[in-house]
Amino acid sequence: MVTTCVLPGTSVTSKMPVLFVGHGSPMNAIDDNVFSHTWRKLGATLPRPRAILCISAHWQTTGSQITAMASPPTIHDFSGFPQALFDVHYPAPGSPEWAAYICQLDTRYAINADYIWGLDHGSWSVLRHMFPEADIPVLQLSLDLAKTPPQHYQFARLLAPLRDEGILIMGSGNIVHNLQEVIWRDEAHDWAVEINKIIIQRIKDHDHAALINYTGLHPSILQAVPTDEHYLPLLYILALQEPQDSVNFFNEKVTLGAISMHGVSIG
Questions:
Q1: Does residue 230 belong to any structural domain of this protein?
Q2: Would you say residue 10 lies in a domain?
Q3: What letters, b where the CB count within 10 A reaches 16 and e where it falls short, cover 12-51?
Q4: Which among 227, 221, 214 is positioned nearest to 194, based on CA atoms?
């Protein structure tokens, strides 16, 4: 496999869209289902990125970190699944050059280079369907445990120049995500469907203030979003929305009781 890394500063002809993907169960990485089919179609219709920057629910750190190695490892950050899932590797290259460029975007927030983490299943379980050739550089940006939701949103706005550089920014999490309420069937709790619908409507209304301060959206919101790591990647994508951007949705479904697979494409 030969990969060409187009270095920062080279002009592009159009602004890249940004995506929020509900990644759901790790099994979606190998299952042939409606979600993986949609990801494949989406990858085929997107402009080809120069690189991909993923904000995954599954990498939380003290301070902001970005993968900066040339060959990020595939991380199997789960247990109790079939061996076939652990056998999957997504050998996409990294990009020390893009990592260095992103680190200097704004000095108000320090972004530190990481040479250990790699690509967790929040990234590769989706990208192996979207870009199966694994020939586009992929970087991951961590979720800083010290930041509040408003601070994550403001921090994400610093990434806006990357859209003009041909970088595909993808948040990977789930709008509704409660593992304590999971049922291993293609069904959904009524409250999970209701809260997912409320959040989607606020996205349609461009009501970012309500989405940032999401705990006030519904009396049962903490049942749908008991911890924020799967919700925060959505804020990163919303922060990059511009007034002229179109908003589209895909995989519009809540399944496994309390897992929203809803995806959002902006731009």
A1: yes
A2: no
A3: eeebbbbbbbbbbbbebbbeebebbebbbebbeeeeebbb
A4: 221
> Does residue 37 form part of some domain?
yes
Structural domains of the chain, count: 1
What is the model's pLDDT at position 3? 39
Question: From CA 193, how far away is CA 196, in angstroms rounded?
Answer: 5
- Residue whose entry in the numeric block shows the structure tokens 């990208």: 127
Residue 168 has which token pair? 């595909």
- Six-digit token string for 231: 């919700």
Q: Are 49 and 16 in contact (CB under 8 A)?
A: yes
Q: What is the pTM of this model?
A: 0.94
pLDDT tens figures, 115-132: 999 999 999 999 999 999
Residue 255 DSSP SS3 = strand
Q: Are 136 and 52 in contact (CB under 8 A)?
A: yes
